[in-house]
Every structure is written in C-alpha cells, then in structure tokens.
Amino acid sequence: MSASKNKLLTKNKIDEQFSVRLVCRNCRSDIPHIVEDFSSGELVCGDCGLVLGDRIIDVRSEWRTFADSEGDDPSRVGNTANPLLDGDQLDTVIGRGNGDMGLSKGLNRIQARTKEHKDEQALLHAYREIGALCDGFKLPKSIVDTAKQLYKKTLNMNLQSGRSFDAIIAVCVVLACRQGGAPRTIKEICAVTRVNVREISRTLKVLKTKLIPESSLTSSKDLIERFCSNLRLDAEVWRISRDMNEIAMDVPNISGKNPMSIAGACIYMASHLVNKGRSSKAISQVSGIGEATIRSTYKILYASRQQLLTPEIMKRNPNAQEKNLIVP
C-alpha cells in the first residue's frame, strides 16, 4: 500500500474520532433522518418522531414582518449606522399613546427634550439643506457626502459660532465642489441661497484653512470647460482658451485678477479668434462676471497677444486668425 493511501486512511480515522453525529436512540440507523422543526425550535427524528433536542436557533433569512403596516422591511435589527450622525442612532421612538395614565405621552415628551435628540434633528436639517443646494446644481452623491462631512467637521471643531448657518452651508458646498473636481463660483452659490457674496467670501476665508488646509483657490482652468459648454462653443475654442489661460498667468498686469475674469477674457478672445465670437454680455450671463470686467481684462490680454498666440497654438488651430480679434 502506498504512503499517500496510508496517510488518507489515517486522516479518515481521525475525522471519524472527532466528528459528532446525532443518532436517534430508538432507530439507531446508520443514516439518521433528523428534521429541524424551526416553528417549534426542536430536532425531531423523521422516522419515529422522537424529539432529540429543543431550543434550536433559526439561522435562516427572516421573511416575516413585525411592522404595523404591510410592505415594511421585515428586518428586526434596524438601519445601518450613519457615520454622519452621532449617538447610538436607535430607531425606537416612544409614541404618544392614550393608555397607561398618560405615561407614553410623558416618556415621549422626555425623549423630545433630550439634547442628543435635538442635536440629531439639527444635523438632519443641515443635511437636508445641503442636499437641496446640491440638487440645484445636479451634483453627484460623492460631492453631497463630502459637503455633509465638512459640515459635521465644522460642528466638531466648533467653528460655527458667530457665523450664519446659511453661509456655513454654502461654504461647505463650495469646498466640496473643489475637492470633487466640479468647482462652482461664489456668485453661482449666492444665486440659490439667501446669503450675499461678501458674507460667503468672509466665511470661506476663515473655514477653508481649517477644514481643508491644502485647499487652493478655484483656478480659471477649472472654469473654462464649463463656461464654454454653457456658451455652446466647440472643443477648439475650449482648447485655445485653456492654452491661453496657462500663458496668461505670466502676462504683466494680470496678476491679482480674479480667476473668473481671466477665464471669461480668454473665452472672449478665443471665440473671436476662430470667428465664433460671443459677446461680453453672453459670457457675463454664463460666468457671472461683469461685462466691464471682461472687457478690461481682455484689453490687457489683447495688448499681450503676441505672447499669448504662440506658434504652437496657431499651428494646432488652423481656423485661428489674429485679424478676427476685436480691437478694444
């Protein structure tokens, strides 16, 4: 007999020694027929009906419902924990019953007064406001969750004192958009909130370094693609605007200009360069930048057009003609 066969037989004998099998003491069959009756919690012999054990645990899926109305989730373990909320997050709510001499009403009143319950309600209210604001911009769920996490971080660091609730909500959405690669301007946020630009800017200046230390200002490069899309300009205009924007940072007298102003002026210049010009009014309506600001920034860029319109840009875009540019 081979060594591998001897090893297999030895292993089978060891398994037989340590294995436990439930056998009916009446039938003593080599192949016992044991039935698990979960309704009564008993182990029953399928041949003679002898009860061999009781109080067994039903490990199958729960299909019954213990809710007051049909169609509810049959699970009896409650919802999963929400990382954006604090406390035990128990779903039990004491109802205002009529019996027990008003005991239920009193317990319901006590539960409503608890600080933890009030804090959770305040958090849920803030999360609803953030969700509504993000829905207005059709932002993805990842950015919505980031904004909620930033708001919770603001509460944990006690940064909300002395500041407007609406301003904090707006700033959390602005920072979440920057982190998610879908920046929104402060003016765009102001258009759907009850806060003015000055208040959001002041709150943003304080919170951004504490919530996201590495957060930087919104670059004009991030805004050009969205502005071109809203103006129905093709990829050629977007490409020229992007390339000119990178060079424009080194143009004299441009430093200190708002990124949105630079983006608007680059789009204005690129659209006219390929004879698909958009007016300063149209760009102003899309970007929220004043027409006078766009024209003044364009005047600086036009004076440095030889630096902006490099041979590489002109070669890659055969439709680009310097003679199409409007003299400011």
Could you explain how this protein is built, in words?
There is one protein chain. The chain has about 325 residues and is mainly alpha-helical. Among the domains are: about 140-210, Cyclin-like (Cyclin A, domain 1, Orthogonal Bundle), CATH 1.10.472.10; about 220-325, Cyclin-like (Cyclin A, domain 1, Orthogonal Bundle). About 50% of the residues lie in helices and about 5% in strands. The protein has helices at about 5-20, 105-115, 115-135, 140-155, 165-180, 185-190, 195-210, 220-230, 235-250, 260-275, 280-285, 290-305, 305-310, 310-315, and strands at about 35, 40-45, 50-55. It has a 3-stranded antiparallel sheet, with no helix packed on it. Helix 4 packs across helix 5 and helix 5 packs across helix 7. Mean pLDDT is about 75; it is low at about 10-20. Keywords: Metal-binding, Repeat, Transcription, Transcription regulation, Zinc, Zinc-finger. This is Transcription initiation factor IIB. It comes from Coemansia brasiliensis.
| CATH homologous superfamily designation of one domain | Cyclin-like
Largest sheet: 3 strands, antiparallel
Shape verdict: elongated
- The fraction of residues assigned to DSSP E strands is under 5%
Distance N to C terminus: 101 Å
Mean pLDDT: 77
Trace the largest sheet across and list its strands. Answer: 1-2-3
Could you name the CATH topology of one domain?
A: Cyclin A, domain 1
Helical content stands at 40-55%
Total helices: the number is 14
Number of strands: 3
Find the structural class using helix and strand composition.
mainly alpha
The parts where pLDDT drops under 50 for at least 5 residues are: 11-18
Radius of gyration over alpha carbons? 35 Å
The CATH class label of one domain is Mainly Alpha
| CATH architecture group name of one domain | Orthogonal Bundle
- Which sequence of SSEs, written as H and E, runs from N to C? HEEEHHHHHHHHHHHHH
Function: General factor that plays a major role in the activation of eukaryotic genes transcribed by RNA polymerase II.
Protein name: Transcription initiation factor IIB
GO molecular function: RNA polymerase II general transcription initiation factor activity; TBP-class protein binding; zinc ion binding
GO biological process, one term: RNA polymerase II preinitiation complex assembly
